[in-house]
Amino acid sequence: MPTTEPGPPRVLVRAGERGEPDASTHPYNPGSEIHGWTISRLAGLERLAVTLAWLPPGKESFAFHLHHREEEWVHVLGGHGEVEVDDAVHAVGPGDFLGFPPGVAHLVRAAPKERLTMLMGGEVIADVEVADFPRLHRRMARLGSRLSVYPMESELPFFPAAAEAPAGVAGEAPAAGRPRVLVREGERGAERAYRHPLDPEAEVHLTALSRPAGLVRVAVGLTRVPAGRPSYVRHVHRHDEEWMYVLAGTGVAEVGDEVHAIGPGDFLGFPASGPAHNVRAAPGSDLAYLHGGDAWSRRTVEIVDFPTLGLRKTFVGTRDAATFPLEAALERR
Description:
Helices cover 3% and strands 45% of the residues. The protein is mainly β and 333 residues long. A 7-stranded antiparallel sheet has the order 1-23-20-25-18-17-16. Strands 2-3-4-11-6-9-15 form a 7-stranded antiparallel sheet. Strands 5-12-13-14 form a 4-stranded antiparallel sheet, with no helix packed on it. A hairpin with a 2-residue loop joins strand 21 (251-255) and strand 22. The longest helix is centred in the first third of the chain and has 5 residues, at 39-43. Mean pLDDT is 91; it is low at 165-175.
């Protein structure tokens, strides 16, 4: 039987082209009701999830829960509400960001008379995950798409009494204290300017959100591109996924051989080894967007190509990088 090769990823999801929103509730919480679009999936991303969602007045997101592997985050776009984080409750509004590292229990609730709109996301861990519902005394074990939920009172002791595994036996890092979790709109800190070494015209102003909140594997931040400037250099990551959601201003996105006008509400997801891409702010105003992707660290290994320049940059950690002309390769297999 003939097969059809998959087409190129969609990449750009315009504000007016999302289709009908999904609606869902949580089986463990009769007060939950969430609407929206998983826009990262529409754009072709696989390892990172980004959802544009809203809660009707007084409704809650899911059940109060925590993940033991996945990192999650929420950025409030409109309306007000509150977020329960472990044993604390925080009032939140537009511009506030929350990052939920593994082990931090949380629940989002809209104010009684306001719809709460948010961009939310996290990792897509396809193999194994464990999550707890502390108030229900239940634990979920997931293997791929198969779920099993256990009452905690059915737990059987694995180690004999007084013979638990000693701290550090599994290689875990020592406790680092309570994560910050909440980064309020007025407490972000100063922007950091960055100019790409391969293009003197490129300029971005960056504000970190996920790292101050305590996330280490998922990156989320704010980017402002000055009017008329390109953000970086047209490039493609060979491992990492990237995305951006336009908050204000207009500009153009260069995606492969195409150029798209972009504005508020548009989402772009850049799959690994997808089309080379870059964005530029329109001449009249700055372009502001929420951006994200795989977080970099000293253990990062990545390859980034700059096709229009004929260059390949290889990263081993965040500082040790070597750049080569593409045609300089001695072997190609």
